[in-house]
Amino acid sequence: MKYDARSGLLYATLDHAVYGSNVHRSADLGRSWQMVGAPDFPEGDERTVTRLWHIQPGHPSQPGRIWLGADPGVLFRSDDDGQTWTGVPGINDHPTREGWQPGAGGMMVHTIIQDPTEADRMFVAISAAGVFRTNDGGLSWQPKNKGVRADFLPDKYPEVGQCCHHLVMSPQDPNVLYQQNHCGVYRTLDGGDNWEDIGTDRLPATFGFPMAIHPRDGRTVYIVPQHSDEFRYTPEGKFRVFRSRDGGESWQGLSDGLPQADAYLNVFREGLATDSLDPAGVYVGTGTGQVFYSRDEGDTWQVLSDTLPPIYSVGTAVIP
């Protein structure tokens, strides 16, 4: 679910066994909802949109433009607030697609990041294909995975095929991005041209899914490591959110107010978020229905809810 500050519209993507994959939109902050256009492939294309994953408003200079990521690793664009959708051939027919493969959750465009300083510059992350960047509004896309490992492939550093789990951008410098990968935690200082490992020997585990960034400080990043790809729970049975204030050079486990005894919890890909307040709030939801929040950038935590179903996505918005 995503709030579009340009229009005041709230979007939600749904995947339903009976009603299929579709997009809903609300003009009154969720009090009522309207189903809008569902993305699909052109006639004659044998592919089918099986699941919708991520919806993202476009650049402030492009009112009405919305981006939508889906399985099987495809991207759609709307220029009318979601009423109609057009496929993005630059990604959907990318020449490296034969090197892409589905992860355990399928093959999806799960992260879409708009460069706030350049309307035509964007990043997407695809599991399992890697990170891609466009500099021309989505007409063409270049793989940006140099230095990122793919331990599950014969070639450990391929052009594509890496399993990026989540991607965030610095609010101060759009060339600085961080990713939580299946095979580590990484940082780039040059817009994805080169990535460096910032997790090995610095974290109790480098596998995980969620990642969030401070709204004003591009060197403050949050992650929730998991023991391994086989054992997907927090290391040592202690539920901790790890924070770096120096761009990943060092990490601190934040635990004040979080369960520390037999807390074998997990957090899904979209289960960690920050808000834009000062000090910044941090929110994390678990696969067993707990939501924790911090009003002081992670130093201390409180329980927001302990009775929900699995938390698949946590998002924030400041409503004017």
Description:
This protein has 320 residues and is an all-beta fold. The protein has a single domain (42-305), classed as Methylamine Dehydrogenase, Chain H (7 Propeller), CATH 2.130.10.10. Helix content is 1%, strand content 36%. It has one helix and 24 strands. It has one helix at 89-92, and strands at 2-4, 9-16, 20-26, 34-36, 51-57, 66-71, 74-78, 86-87, 108-114, 122-127, 130-134, 142-143, 164-169, 177-181, 184-188, 196-197, 207-213, 221-226, 241-244, 252-254, 272-274, 282-285, 291-294, 302-305. The strands form six sheets. Strands 1-2-3-4 form a four-stranded antiparallel sheet, with no helix packed on it. A four-stranded antiparallel sheet has the order 5-6-7-8. It has a four-stranded antiparallel sheet with strand order 9-10-11-12, with no helix packed on it. Strand 2 and strand 3 form a beta hairpin. It is globular and about 55 Å long.
